[in-house]
Hints:
- The protein is α/β, with parallel strands linked by helices.
- It has a single domain, classed as Transcription Regulator spoIIAA (2-Layer Sandwich), CATH 3.30.750.24.
- It is about 20% helix and about 35% strand.
- The strands form 2 sheets. Strands 1-2-3-4-5-6 form a 6-stranded mixed β-sheet, with helices on one face. Strands 8-7-9 form a 3-stranded antiparallel β-sheet, with no helix packed on it.
- Strand 5, helix 3 and strand 6 form a beta-alpha-beta unit.
- Helix 1 runs parallel beside helix 2.
- The longest helix is centred in the middle third of the chain and has 15 residues.
- The protein is globular and about 50 Å long.
Amino acid sequence: MLPITLSRTERLKILANLDFEAKTLLLELEGDLDENSELKKVSDYCVAVRKEARSLTLDLGRIHYVNSPGIRAWIQFISRIQAQFESCSFRLLSESFLHLANQLPEMLGRPENAVESFELPYYCSSCDSRVLVRLGCEDVRSGTGFEPPARKCGTCGEPLLMDEIEQDYFRFLRRGAPTGPQGA
Length: 184
């Protein structure tokens, strides 16, 4: 499995890893989704390899910024490519992408597309610092809903506070999609 660079513009880099044995395709995106994103070329690649891969995983942990044309291009992209695979999942959602997915559920495609992990912002009032923590969806489940796990500041050891409104930030988890690896 060798990574292939599908797109490398000034603002967005997309790597593809096709695993022939596992029949999976991993797309890793890094940078900004905007009017210059070359998502058409990437969707053409996905269509071309659909016989070699049954599942698609998208790693969006390094998406920093998405503007309006980027939103439109992404929704067209995910609508087209998810139909090419038996399953589609998201390995990691960056904070900026997650904010948009909470406002526009179509950013995550079909409701059955699984989300494995995401970034959760915490704040330390003692250090006046903000930190992003990578969590699996199962890490925030509670008996009646979702809540952030307790964390301590790596600098001062004081408890961290979630730096978002819980009911808004965890909205994507209530959309009906399976969560965890392969929807487990």
